UniProtKB/TrEMBL annotation:
Residues 29-373 form the Orn/DAP/Arg decarboxylase 2 C-terminal domain. SUPFAM superfamilies: Alanine racemase C-terminal domain-like, PLP-binding barrel. The keyword ATP-binding does not apply. InterPro entries: Ala_racemase/Decarboxylase_C, DAP_deCOOHase_LysA, De-COase2_C, De-COase2_CS, De-COase2_N, De-COase2_pyr-phos_BS, Orn/DAP/Arg_de-COase, PLP-binding_barrel. The active site is at residue 346. Residues 36-281 form the Orn/DAP/Arg decarboxylase 2 N-terminal domain. HAMAP family: LysA. This is Diaminopimelate decarboxylase. Gene3D superfamilies: Alanine racemase, Lyase, Ornithine Decarboxylase, Chain A, domain 1. GO terms for molecular function: diaminopimelate decarboxylase activity; pyridoxal phosphate binding. The gene is lysA. Keywords: Amino-acid biosynthesis, Decarboxylase, Lyase, Lysine biosynthesis, Pyridoxal phosphate.
Length: 421
């Protein structure tokens, strides 16, 4: 459930008509709902009730400082995958002991920053990384808390670009090798084992791959504990899918996921960490755009809008579906139309939807791409010198611009022309 609903014939974000925001900030823009973000975080928090746990919001889904501040205020932890994300987390008020550092390519600088600023744990992804972190920590005279991300070799049954739990993926170490790696960590003075980590992919729409992976983690927990390692935490990653296509999709709910976690891992008395990103942010946001032209082609009609692939890349990168709705509610019984919905960028890949059956629309109409709160603004670029789209946060009847649209001058003046030109 989210808080983007028609009211008096206009699509609202909570109590604010999207047309009112469009008039104030121009199009295109991202609009997020505070109540929806809050609700999604609480669903996870409640799903794990009764087990010691921390919900670590995976900020790569949406890392605006206002969203991070909201999450920190709710008591969330946070999962970061770069030095920049670590800096954002600290700036938003997350204490070090709420920050989990994931990612296959952590640099020495990033390690030093996190060790100096405070860190809950590093999720190690390889043996070379393990040895480097040990060196960095010892040089600083500290001990780094670590888990090892194990690759359970299960098929997450999701899009290949976001599946991470098969042995052919670059992530984690093979679970069969885990015992050996933990044994080496026990000999390294700069590292201290705190648990095990696993993350098998994103936009999972079935609990079975999780169940298979978590069973392997439970077995490994017993083995590693018997070997004398302190497996106090189980980081289960993120990845629970959302219904991008509302008429078709019904992915598992957080409460069902939580029940499965309890079944598979509850008996281990470990602290459960989860790292949801998409499910917290995805349906908490929309991208609102204005139709520029209706181009009637041979056999197909193109709706050309003022948003493009540089603003929301998921359709061209992952062939992702986003529901498209008009901001003005179509009259009951109105005939729909079929369009290819495209942006102005000079690439055929700049297509949001092909042969989409949707409300009849024309120049000047506002339409909204739903489920755009995750992996939307964060993946945007200024390709075609299109300034980054602004982000707006709504709460009840108020809204605020949480990242303004840069002017052309601001965009241009980030470049430097050398004197000798
Ligand atoms: C991307 C990622 C997540 C979040 O995945 P979602 O599908 O957005 O929930 C969590 N943990 C790790 C390690 C990730 O790389």
């Amino acid at each position: 459930m989210d808080h983007f609903l028609y009211r008096d014939g206009i699509l609202h974000a909570e109590d604010v008509p999207l047309s009112q925001i469009a008039a104030a900030v121009g199009t295109p823009f991202y609009c997020y709902s505070t109540a929806t973000f809050t609700r999604h975080f609480r669903l996870f928090d409640e799903a794990l009730e009764g087990m010691p746990h921390l919900v670590c919001y995976a900020m790569k889904a949406n890392s605006n400082q206002a969203i991070l501040t909201l999450m920190a205020n709710l008591g969330a932890g946070v999962d970061v995958v770069s030095g920049g994300e670590y800096a954002r987390a600290r700036a938003a008020g997350f204490e070090g002991d709420k920050i989990v550092f994931s990612g296959v390519g952590k640099t020495r600088d990033e390690m030093r920053t996190a060790l100096a600023g405070g860190i809950r744990q590093f999720n190690l992804e390889s043996e070379p990384e393990m040895r480097v972190l040990d060196q960095v920590a010892r040089a600083m005279g500290v001990v780094a808390p670590v888990t090892v991300r194990v690759n359970p070799d299960v098929d997450a049954k999701t899009h290949e670009k976001i599946a991470t739990g098969k042995s052919e993926n670059k992530f984690g170490i093979p679970i069969a090798k885990a015992r050996e790696v933990y044994a080496e960590i026990a000999t390294l003075e700069g590292l201290r084992v705190v648990g095990i980590d696993v993350h098998i992919g994103s936009q999972l729409t079935d609990l079975e791959p999780y169940r298979l992976a978590y069973r392997k983690v439970a077995e490994l927990t017993d083995v590693l504990r018997a070997d004398g390692h302190a497996i106090e935490r189980l980081d289960l990653g993120g990845g629970l899918g959302i219904p991008y296509e509302r008429s078709n999709d019904a992915p598992p709910l957080p409460v069902e996921y939580g029940a499965m976690v309890r079944e598979e891992l509850g008996h281990l008395n470990a602290e459960i960490e989860i790292e949801p990103g998409r499910l917290i942010a995805g349906n908490s946001g929309v991208l609102v755009t204005e139709v520029i032209y209706l181009k009637e082609g041979e056999g197909r009609d193109f709706l050309i809008v003022d948003a493009a692939m540089n603003d929301l890349i998921r359709p061209s990168m992952y062939a992702a579906h986003h529901d498209i709705v008009s901001v003005v509610e179509p009259a009951a019984g109105a005939d729909p139309a079929t369009y290819d919905v495209v942006g102005p960028v000079c690439e055929s890949g700049d297509t949001f939807a092909k042969q989409r059956v949707m409300a009849q629309s024309g120049p000047g109409d506002l339409i909204a791409f739903r489920s755009a709160g995750a992996y939307g603004a964060v993946m945007a670029s200024e390709y075609n010198s299109r300034p980054l789209v602004p982000e707006v946060l709504v709460s009840g009847d108020q809204f605020a611009v949480i990242r303004p649209r840069p002017s052309f001058d601001e965009m241009i003046n980030r470049d430097r022309v050398p004197e000798w030109l």
